[in-house]
């Protein structure tokens, strides 16, 4: 199954769900007696022998003139499946939509909805995927075929896992598992449920035991792909717990069999996990080897999650080797990949919320229409009653309508509030990367028009990864929030403050000269370093800050980001917990070379000025 831009494991689950389904359309009496066998054979070998599957479709197409209406639509469904298998998702989507609208077989229509949900998710059309899923779930109570019911429930659980709705996903997976077995769907249900449990957490020994049992069950059912994914989850938890050797052994022992499956997403995940494990064991060469292999596999399939992790590792390896040029390059690639990963997560969560709001709004609209119909009926009846009674009924119904209108008003306000929240970083409450860029560019355009100076500060918390590794992500999240709070106490209402990714933040100071930016940056550095972390003593935090001013550079945000980033890396190289401003730059054989900036005689050869350090 061809898939692009899929986070987590949509690609492998898409293959499992599409391969595990068998249609139930019945042959008509007027067609050759072996037609039903051709349909059943085609359904059974879709993923096992796709070449033979294509030949069976061609046989059925040659008989299309004598096929019943039901079988014609069954053939259209099989053609749509093949189009999706070879990556022609737009063609498959149109064919499936036709089956849903026109097929006389309710079971086949439900099968098509389930497959369409899968294709829409792969194509990043998340809002349409949730709308189609809602329709499929609404029709599901009328479906008696167990295979079809399990197919739809599996799609629901998988899509909700992708959107971060883990409890709801687990609920649908449990419903799937309880249905009497059809086509080994039990292993699929267990795999999806454990997938949701893994991302929900916590990652304790009980979960590891469940994952191991699930992997063993899938191996017994010949679902090697599901088993390998669950084993990669186990390895991820072992790395998180510091059991790096155990994780490496598990991944290496199953690597050859995994490679035979030829699923790029799973290959990328195995490689990035091996890279992380070797890095934590200080095996730099092995870590670099598997990180580069991850990049190769992830770029081919555009798998943003392993790609982001691989670039982060390569950045750290380049830093350790002292190769600063490669470090800057990998850091920029990591930032882009991580932004894509976060945008993908945000896009799915937003699509779920929008679809949920739309369903609620539609229900409210139906209720309002029913109430209006009742009002008309009552008005007709009230013509034969006394005037006082009529007034009483109308007043009551108007009250009901007013309540519904108020409900719709509040629902709309809730939707608008959610859209506003989408601008903010979920952890710290400040602007996320995308909206920081938008606000900063708007502020810079205004400064350029009024010919006023502005300054950009980049802040990066020192040794933040070691805090995460030693104390856990919960403590790391608290450190990020307290650092942001410390900065906010020294910012003005018109300053633009946002999280650029991980532990890096950006502040655009409007109408601020380079000298003022230095003073304010030093205030921020002192405030961060003085931030109490009483709950997690003896943790102390510090930050490195890089400054770029429009006085020395342009009003172009990208230019300021590059200049401030150079200053930030200079601060890191010189010991951290300090402020550096980028005045200008010149290139030497070894890259950028900072020099001291004289008070009264600036020179084109001077690049960075060290302005504050502890």
From TrEMBL:
Segments forming domain GGDEF: 452-584
PROSITE patterns: GGDEF
The keyword Coiled coil appears for this protein: yes
Leader sequence segment: 1-30
TM region(s), chain numbering: 392-411
EC top class, as a word: transferase
Enzyme Commission numbers on file: 2.7.7.65
InterPro entries per record: Diguanylate_Cyclase, GGDEF_dom, Nucleotide_cyclase, Rev_trsase/Diguanyl_cyclase, TPR-like_helical_dom_sf
Record carries keyword S-adenosyl-L-methionine: no
Cited Pfam families: GGDEF (PF00990)
Reactions catalysed: 2 GTP = 3',3'-c-di-GMP + 2 diphosphate
Alphabetized UniProt keyword annotations: Coiled coil, Membrane, Signal, Transmembrane, Transmembrane helix
Coiled-coil portions: 352-388
PANTHER family the UniProt entry points to: DIGUANYLATE CYCLASE DGCM-RELATED, REGULATORY COMPONENTS OF SENSORY TRANSDUCTION SYSTEM
NCBIfam families: GGDEF
Name assigned to this protein: diguanylate cyclase
Organism: Dyella flava
């Amino acid at each position: 199954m061809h898939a692009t831009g899929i986070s987590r494991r949509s690609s492998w689950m898409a293959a499992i769900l599409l391969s595990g389904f068998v249609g139930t359309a019945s042959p008509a009496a007027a067609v050759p007696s072996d037609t039903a066998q051709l349909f059943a054979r085609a359904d059974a070998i879709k993923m096992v022998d796709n070449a033979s599957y294509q030949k069976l479709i061609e046989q059925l197409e040659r008989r299309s003139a004598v096929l019943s209406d039901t079988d014609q639509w069954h053939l259209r469904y099989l053609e749509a499946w093949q189009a999706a298998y070879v990556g022609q998702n737009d063609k498959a989507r149109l064919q499936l939509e036709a089956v849903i609208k026109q097929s006389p077989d309710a079971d086949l229509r439900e099968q098509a909805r389930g497959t369409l949900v899968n294709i829409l998710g792969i194509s990043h059309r998340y809002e349409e995927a949730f709308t189609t899923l809602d329709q499929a779930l609404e029709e599901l109570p009328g479906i008696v075929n167990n295979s079809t019911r399990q197919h739809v429930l599996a799609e629901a659980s998988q899509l909700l896992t992708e959107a971060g709705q883990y409890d709801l996903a687990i609920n649908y997976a449990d419903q799937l598992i309880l249905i009497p077995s059809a086509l080994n769907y039990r292993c699929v249900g267990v795999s999806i449920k454990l997938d949701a449990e893994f991302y929900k957490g916590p990652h304790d020994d009980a979960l590891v035991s469940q994952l191991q049992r699930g992997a063993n069950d899938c191996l017994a059912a010949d679902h090697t792909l599901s088993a390998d994914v669950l084993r990669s989850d186990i390895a991820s938890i072992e790395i998180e717990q510091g059991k790096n050797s155990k994780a490496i052994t598990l991944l290496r022992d199953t690597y050859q069999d995994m490679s035979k499956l030829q699923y790029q997403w799973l290959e990328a995940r195995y490689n990035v996990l091996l890279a992380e494990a070797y890095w934590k064991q200080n095996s730099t060469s092995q870590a670099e080897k598997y990180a580069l292999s991850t990049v190769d596999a992830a770029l081919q399939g555009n798998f943003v999650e392993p790609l982001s992790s691989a670039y982060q590792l390569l950045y750290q390896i380049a830093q350790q080797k002292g190769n600063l040029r490669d470090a800057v390059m990998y850091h920029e690639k990591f930032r882009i990949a991580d932004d894509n990963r976060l945008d993908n997560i945000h896009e799915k969560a937003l699509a779920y919320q929008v679809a949920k709001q739309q369903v609620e709004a539609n229900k409210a609209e139906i209720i309002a229409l029913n109430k209006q119909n009742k009002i008309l009926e009552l008005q007709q009846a009230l013509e034969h009653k006394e005037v006082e009674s009529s007034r009483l009924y109308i007043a009551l119904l108007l009250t009901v309508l007013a309540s519904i209108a108020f409900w719709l008003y509040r629902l709309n306000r809730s939707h608008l509030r959610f859209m506003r929240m989408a601008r903010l970083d979920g952890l710290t409450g400040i602007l996320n990367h995308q909206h920081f860029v938008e606000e900063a560019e708007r502020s810079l355009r205004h400064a350029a028009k009024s010919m006023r100076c502005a300054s950009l500060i980049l802040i990066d918390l020192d040794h933040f990864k070691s805090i995460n590794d030693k104390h856990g992500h919960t403590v790391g999240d608290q450190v990020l929030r307290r650092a942001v709070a410390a900065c906010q106490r020294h910012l003005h209402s018109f300053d633009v403050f946002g999280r650029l990714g991980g532990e890096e933040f950006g502040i655009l100071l409007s109408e601020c000269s380079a000298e003022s930016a230095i003073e304010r940056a030093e205030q921020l550095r002192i405030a961060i370093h003085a931030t109490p972390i009483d709950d997690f003593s003896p943790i102390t935090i510090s930050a490195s800050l890089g400054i770029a001013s429009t006085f020395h550079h342009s009003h172009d945000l990208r230019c300021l980001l590059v200049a401030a980033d150079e200053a930030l890396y200079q601060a890191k190289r010189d010991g951290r917990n300090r402020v550096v401003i980028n005045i200008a730059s010149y290139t030497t054989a070894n890259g950028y070379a900072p020099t001291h900036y004289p008070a009264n005689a600036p020179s084109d050869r001077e690049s960075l000025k060290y302005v504050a350090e502890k």
